[in-house]
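Handout, section B. The chain below has 291 residues.
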Amino acid sequence: MTLTAFALVVVAALIHATWNLLAKKAGGGAAFVFLGVAAMVLIYLPVMLVWRWQTPSLFLDITALQWAFIALSAVLHIGYSLSLQRGYQTADYGVVYPIARGTGPFLSSLCAIFFFGEAVTVASAIGIACIVAGIFVLAGGLRALSDHSPRAKAGVQWGTTTGAFIALYTLADGYAVKYLAIAPLLLDYCCNLLRVVFLSPMLLTQRQEICAEWRKNWRYILVISTISPLAYILVLTAMQTAPISQVAPLREISMLFAAGLGAKLLGEQRIGEKMVGAALMLVGVVGLLWR
């Protein structure tokens, strides 16, 4: 991985940690997700209009296969959001979150290596393994797996399902920007546009909830909708040149930033576990940069 790609992913991770802190503080549900995606489309509309003015054939040049991947991305991102939300409703955050964030990059890396034929060195393999292990330890996953209660089992189930969606949209989006040459901004915007279309039935069934959510959290919605797409666009840009198998685990260092910013996303203060997790992730970063 080049230093440029590394820097893009690290900046994206910092932004990701920031907007997740805001989202956690807002505490919104499905209505919050819908408003956030709708706001993303509106906020970035001027950028797309300027781009469309400069390139009249911008949308006409998108092939059927590219549109198929954009639609697939939208469906997978919706699946991820709904799966994560369902997990938080039926299980503990401390179980769902570490399993999702650990299995997601692990499956992404594994599939990218085997299906996309991405080269892997000993150093990068060790780096990927250390980062995934660090994610799991940092999030308290070891303790979560020792709990065999029905609620914990539900957490494992939904955490794994969410992780699978993370892996699937990472692979689909990575393939789209790397092999189908879809511009990261175009992919992200069109994906968000389709997500609004797919989620629009909520306007008929949850109109009051949506209005109440906007009045309560409009500031959070606007900030998150501005910076969240930027973070993912940076990741997609890195994927254009760097192996997906390395970008996927590296972007999870956002958990380090979240912990450093004082977030409560990772549970109670577990200094020993956090130090071990941070050390593993730092070793993993060195492995990915080793040439």
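Note. The chain is about 80% helix and 0% strand. Compare this with the example in section A.
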